[in-house]
Amino acid sequence: MTDIDQLTTRTERRRLDDLVETPHAHVFDEPRTVRLELAAGEGVPSHRHPERTIVCHVLEGTLEMRLGDEEYVLEAGEVLRFDGRQEIAPEARTDATALLVLAPRDD
User: I need a labelling partner for 59 at 20 to 30 A (CA). Which of 3, 72, 75, 85 fits?
Assistant: First the structure.
């Protein structure tokens, strides 16, 4: 038996431009993947994803990501990885689109 014979995740392909739901468009189930699209000044209320490690890749615009007491300003092309157990509150400084991957925690 080869490694290919043991594959359990099927290959899936999506075009982000085809996802029209806002602010969150569901891309994949696991790891949970969403496209976040926010207009300038729009944000998502503070929340947590305690069972997840999160990767945020800003595709367009500028996104402010508040994580607990810290604030990160992300420009298009930047990627931020963080623990979902902390308070999370993204807000767009300009019209912004980001891809978020919420992976199950290892511990």
Answer: 85
Side chain identity, residue 92: A
One-character DSSP codes across 64-101: EEEETTEEEEEETT-EEEEETTS-EEEEESSSEEEEEE
- Which pLDDT score, from 0 to 100, does residue 104 have? 94
Please return the burial class of 80, using the count of CB atoms within 10 Å of its CB with bins 0-12, 13-18 and 19+: middle
Reported as a single tens digit per residue, the pLDDT across 7-23 is 667 777 888 778 877 77
Q: Which residue has the tokens 């500028």?
A: 62
d(CA 29, CA 40): 28
